[in-house]
UniProtKB/TrEMBL annotation, chain A:
<dbReference type="GO" id="GO:0003824">
    <property type="term" value="F:catalytic activity"/>
</dbReference>
<dbReference type="InterPro" id="IPR006638">
    <property type="entry name" value="Elp3/MiaA/NifB-like_rSAM"/>
</dbReference>
<dbReference type="Pfam" id="PF04055">
    <property type="entry name" value="Radical_SAM"/>
</dbReference>
<dbReference type="InterPro" id="IPR013785">
    <property type="entry name" value="Aldolase_TIM"/>
</dbReference>
<dbReference type="InterPro" id="IPR050377">
    <property type="entry name" value="Radical_SAM_PqqE_MftC-like"/>
</dbReference>
<keyword id="KW-0411">Iron-sulfur</keyword>
<dbReference type="GO" id="GO:0046872">
    <property type="term" value="F:metal ion binding"/>
</dbReference>
<keyword id="KW-0004">4Fe-4S</keyword>
<keyword id="KW-0479">Metal-binding</keyword>
UniProtKB/TrEMBL annotation, chain B:
<dbReference type="InterPro" id="IPR023850">
    <property type="entry name" value="MftB"/>
</dbReference>
<protein>
    <submittedName>
        <fullName>Mycofactocin biosynthesis chaperone MftB</fullName>
    </submittedName>
</protein>
<dbReference type="Pfam" id="PF26520">
    <property type="entry name" value="MftB_chaperone"/>
</dbReference>
């Protein structure tokens, strides 16, 4: 960044919102070949109202006019849309760079070569563990092999600097070094993001979100690796591990960008404040019904509210507020915590006490999960023994004279 | 001008890298490099004016003068331009030839 500055700080400008988003995520489809346990968009089935090819092209035209330099395309699995490769080409031909997230299912040798020969395209392969055992438990059997095959094709085709995108969970925090080594092996850059209780993530968040001591591990690891690892600015709540003067902040914007510099366009054209906030409470409008994306971005009442001064509630008196700025809106919302209070993973411990008070977790308002279980669907629920029982419960009909005696 | 290293830059001819686009914002502008995918913020409108003027100006000195930057601020501006050059947002003109967008 440059150093010549006067007037309001850059941070204040961001909080008041920009003329166009810096970081726009566009989920092209809710259809997905996988059924990841923690899917942030509860994807699975295609929505019949999905934007048509022409409607997608119109959105791209508008992004070009707004000078949205690049768009993060996701899903669902975006590459299973038949017009995906066409839309990719259309976007880069209209000065809208594309970074897309994929589980790798459609990245064969031919597509890898196509990607390697296309400028302004970045590929991000999702992988949630350095080993098949850890990854496949949440992403489903075979998904590790699929991701690595795709990364191999990209490397062999000469695609430079793909990203390996990892959602940090309780089960893979111990593998950060291995994940980095894996990325190095494939000539890729590691990208770590935070597990949010969004979408199906709410069902597994209690079991998968990193434990407090693991949060510290993540922070220390990120500090040690600096800008060599990407985070999508998703760990700014960890900045409160540093001194209260904010000097321990991680690289990045360190603020919630929802509706200010960030937003999401979903497969049916609904515009949400953030990719982790697919819920009616954060729905700003629709690109088809409300006069186009620019109008929604600039005029929606929801975004105006998000860009107005926010109260910091219970966090006001905390000396670390300037570091973490209250954390992640979506994490608070989907765990039923007040938006002006601490993040559920507040590193000062205020989140844990907030979670222990009475709260109501909001019901999901958008869910494209498959209605019935599919083959190879990850099931995190496991049958285990109760550790407090040493023997089966005593039946009232037990006839043995030794019934109830422990040997 | 106190700093000797600045003088060197002042006499050079610089320009916006061909694969870089500027997007005006209330604070100044966003600069995006489509090639290396770096995003940078130009934090003042005056800096934006200087950067936009680089292509037209014969050297950095003229671009600063045309942008209305007071001479005492030149060292700070040269430092800012150097920062931009570090991520290839702008570059000396001679090296900029041959890349199109």
């Amino acid at each position: 960044m440059t150093t010549v500055a006067h007037g309001p700080t850059l941070l204040e400008h961001f909080e008041h919102g920009l003329d166009a988003p810096i970081c726009l995520t566009w989920e092209l489809t809710y259809a997905c070949n996988l059924t990841c346990a923690h899917c942030l968009s509860s994807s699975g089935r295609r929505d019949p109202r999905e934007l048509t090819t022409e409607q997608c092209e119109e959105v791209i035209d508008e992004l070009q006019r707004m000078q949205v330099f690049y768009v993060n395309i996701g899903g669902g699995e975006p590459t299973i849309r038949p017009d995906f490769w066409h839309l990719l080409r259309y976007a880069v031909d209209h000065q809208v760079g594309v970074k897309f997230s994929t589980n790798g299912v459609r990245i064969d040798r031919e597509k890898a070569e196509l990607l390697a020969s296309t400028d302004y395209v970045d590929v991000q392969v999702s992988l949630d563990g350095a080993t098949a055992e850890v990854n496949d438990r949440v992403r489903g059997p075979g998904s590790y092999a699929t991701a690595l095959r795709a990364l191999g094709h990209l490397r062999d085709a000469g695609f430079r600097d793909a990203k390996i995108s990892v959602v940090c969970t309780r089960e893979n925090v111990d593998q950060l070094d291995q994940l980095k080594a894996l990325a190095d092996e494939y000539g890729a850059t590691l990208r770590l993001t935070r597990l949010r209780p969004s979408g199906r993530g709410v069902d597994v968040w209690d079991d998968l979100h990193p434990r407090p001591e693991q949060q510290r591990t993540i922070y220390d690891w990120l500090v040690a690796h600096g800008e060599g690892v990407l985070t999508g600015d998703s760990f700014f709540h960890l900045s409160a591990f540093g001194p209260a003067d904010g000097s321990g902040a991680l690289p990045g914007l360190n603020l919630c960008g929802a509706g200010r510099v960030v937003c999401l366009i979903d497969p049916v054209g609904d515009v949400y404040a953030c990719p982790f906030a697919i819920h009616d409470s954060f729905l700003a409008g629709n690109v088809l019904d409300d006069g186009g994306f620019a109008k929604v971005w600039r005029e929606s009442a929801l975004f105006a509210e998000l860009r107005s001064p926010q109260t910091s509630g219970a966090c006001t008196s905390c000396q670390h507020f300037d570091s973490c700025r209250g954390g992640c809106m979506a994490a608070k919302f989907f765990t039923g915590l007040p938006l002006d209070g601490p993040d559920p993973e507040c590193v000062q411990g205020y989140g844990e006490s907030a979670l222990s008070t009475e709260r109501t977790v909001p019901l999901p308002s958008v869910d494209h999960s498959r209605p019935t279980a599919v083959r190879q669907q990850p099931v995190l629920l496991q049958l285990t023994r109760r550790t407090d029982l040493v023997a089966p419960p005593l039946s009232a009909c037990a006839e043995s004279p030794l019934a109830g005696f422990r040997g | 001008m106190a700093c000797a290293a600045c003088t060197e830059v002042l006499d050079e001819s610089w320009g916006l890298t061909p694969s870089v686009e500027l997007r005006p914002e209330p604070f100044g502008a966003l600069a995006y490099h489509f090639g290396n995918r770096r995003l940078t913020f130009l934090k003042t409108r005056q800096l934006v004016a200087v950067v936009r003027g680089l292509d037209e100006a014969p050297d950095v000195r003229s671009a600063l003068a045309a942008g209305g930057v007071a001479e005492r601020e030149w060292p700070a501006y040269v430092a800012a331009l150097r920062n931009l050059a570090a991520t290839d947002m702008i570059r000396p003109i001679a090296a900029a030839a041959g890349e199109g967008r």
